[in-house]
Amino acid sequence: MRLMKIWYNEIKEFYMQKFIQAYIEKLDVTTIIENILTKVISLLLLLIVFYIAKKMLHTMVQRIAKPSLKMSHHDVGRQKTISRLLENVFNYTSYFFLLYCILSILGLPVSSLLAGAGIAGVAIGMGAQGFLSDVINGFFILFERQLDVGDEVVLTNGPITVSGKVVSVGIRTTQLRSEEQALHFVPNRNITVVSNFSRTD
């Protein structure tokens, strides 16, 4: 019985080695290396182009938002607010396209992944509602000019209040710097009352 077991293991090992050897012989190592190098070079070029494009977009936004000498303090704050918002939109969009291009270069089925993301999106719809609420409320805050970068404000949501100077207004959150130098990130959907002490109009 023991002898049969030894023979069985030897035969199994023999055929396994034959299988591995046959598999390796079928592989075209040159083609594999060429494909890997092509993808690596494509990814490097993509990252370089992405970095340059991001820098150019940042410079364009800064030039558009560059305050003139004729602007009042309130107008300067308004322009800073819009520039921060534009940068946020550009960042979200550019990173989405970067991820899409990386998946395409790696040969992954992007269409299938997007379809799967759509199904997953339905499953996490409740979480997406919060994101949409942030974006919509942030839009109305900007459209109605409730606050701008540099304004001293108090944000209220029921019994909760947060006060400080507005540092940034994004599509999801508004950032305040308190007197204690703490940086508060307030989701836009949680802002129900804005008390602006920098507005005189």
Automatic annotation (TrEMBL):
Q: Which family does it belong to?
A: Belongs to the MscS (TC 1.A.23) family.
| Top-level taxon in the UniProt lineage | Bacteria
**Function description:** May play a role in resistance to osmotic downshock.
Sequence ranges assigned to domain Mechanosensitive ion channel transmembrane helices 2/3 in this UniProt record: 88-129
Q: Where is it localised? A: Cell membrane
PANTHER family (alphabetical): MODERATE CONDUCTANCE MECHANOSENSITIVE CHANNEL YBIO (PTHR30460)
TM regions (residue ranges): 36-53, 89-108, 114-136
What keyword terms does UniProt attach to this protein? Cell membrane, Membrane, Transmembrane, Transmembrane helix
Domain Mechanosensitive ion channel MscS: residue ranges: 132-199
Q: How does it sit in the membrane?
A: Multi-pass membrane protein
Organism of origin is Streptococcus pseudopneumoniae
Q: State the coiled-coil residue ranges.
A: none
A Pfam family reported for this protein in Swiss-Prot or TrEMBL:
MS_channel_2nd
Q: What protein am I looking at?
A: Mechanosensitive ion channel family protein
Q: What would be an example GO MF term here?
A: mechanosensitive monoatomic ion channel activity
Lineage, top ranks? Bacteria, Bacillati, Bacillota, Bacilli, Lactobacillales
InterPro entries to which the protein is assigned, alphabetical: LSM_dom_sf, MS_channel_1st, MscS_beta-dom_sf, MscS_channel_2nd, MscS_channel_TM-2, YbiO_bact
